[in-house]
């Protein structure tokens, strides 16, 4: 096959630009700011550990590990139907599944110590995330409301709080 060098360069450049655009979006938090690291999260690709210490959106991550928890509670994975994988990580920061967050806050009736500046924007603004909230509980809207209330209280600035309020209002409008 004959490939024109200019054509190959053009296609590679387009793909690189597209990848950069996706990468930038995956590193935005729910306040529309730079995504903070989920401090203490392992910097590898194990399930739940995020990517390089951050709870980034990754389309290939079927579990949607995008909610940063400041301290995994005792029996977290057991009480969300995942076995006992989290026992060795109790009290540590971790990127958990969106559905597991929804399951925990609606069924365990206790809050998780979420770190909102380290939660990916895609958790509240994508159809992908909505489907994962719904997988966790039929009362998924209660979980969204819980996250919105917790994160409004943690908002670092008025601008960040207002950005989050707009996003959360969209959830209410769709119900």
TrEMBL record:
Show which residues constitute the signal peptide.
1-24
Keywords in alphabetical order? Signal
> From what superkingdom does this record's organism come?
Eukaryota
Q: What is this protein called?
A: Uncharacterized protein
Naturally occurring in which organism (per UniProt): Eutreptiella gymnastica
Name the lineage.
Answer: Eukaryota, Discoba, Euglenozoa, Euglenida, Spirocuta
